[in-house]
Every structure is written in C-alpha cells, then in structure tokens.
Amino acid sequence: MTVSSWYGRKQGKTLEIASDTALWYRPGTPPKPIRWVLVRDPEGKRAPQAFFSTDTAREPADIIALFVRRWQVEVTFAETRAHLGVETQRQWSDKAIARTTPALLGLYSLISLWACDLLSTTSTPYAAAWYRKTNLTFTDAIGSVRLALWVGDVFQHSPPDREPQEIPPDRLVRMAEALCFAA
C-alpha cells in the first residue's frame, strides 16, 4: 500500500500493511473496539511498527498519516523544551506559567520563520567535529538568528565621537558563531 506521508516528508511511500479491528480490554473498563495497523518498510530502513486508533472507520493510511503529523508536533515540543526552556519556568503561579508557555511557543515560531529567511536549502548545518549532521535543526535556526542579531547590531550603538576600532569581519563572524552555536 502507498501512504501519502511518511517520515522525512516522503510522499507516496510504499509500505507493507496489515490491518483489522479488535477489542481493547483493560481491567475495570468495558472492551473498546480499535483498529490496529501493522507496518513494515520493504526497504528495511525502519523497524516494523504498530499503530492503533479508536476510530475503527479510519483507513490504515489515514491512521499512519495522523501519526506522522503528530510526530512533528512532538519534535516541536522537544525543541522548545531543550532550547527555550518550556516546562522549566520557575514561576510560582499557574497564571504566570499560562502566560509564559504561549510566549515561548510564539518565540519558537518567530525564530523558525526568521531562520527560513536567513537559511537556504544550500545552507550547511553547524556540526561538531565528532557529530556530522545532514539536515538543518532548530539549533541551526536559533544560531543563525543570533548571528544576524549580534553581527548586524555590533556597531550600531558605538558613541559617534570615538575612534572606531573595527574587528576584522572574519574574526567577528568566528567569535559570533562560537557564541551562537555553543553546545
């Protein structure tokens, strides 16, 4: 069977799929009908997976597509926790937390949109010597935005009557990259 979306935004991926309905039972609750979907990648790039849905009318390809879309949301939350501190705020009231989390998610969106303007499909991901990345990540996005802010703003606030002492551009960029992409 061919599915409309798969990992890595791959369209039209051919998978081996088995699906049917069953009853899901947990002690203390009545049995609930579910649709199960078993998936095997004929290319062997991913381990076989099982998906479940309580909507037994859904087609197996739809269940898989919904899971793949959900994964993008999970990655977004993981990135906002790791880089922007979502769920690590130190406020004392629920109202403060309710204000801060949406603001941080908005910041994530702004950084992502700005990075789309700064980075292109030919941009090289920043990687340490021991870890080579092939795709751009949020670390690259936030680093490119920091670099644009810091390098673009470095001479804006100097007093007008002082002798300028310019940092050579290559050194300035190296220093800013070290700060922007520090692990």
TrEMBL record:
The lineage of its organism: Bacteria, Pseudomonadati, Pseudomonadota, Alphaproteobacteria, Rhodobacterales. This is Transposase IS4-like domain-containing protein.
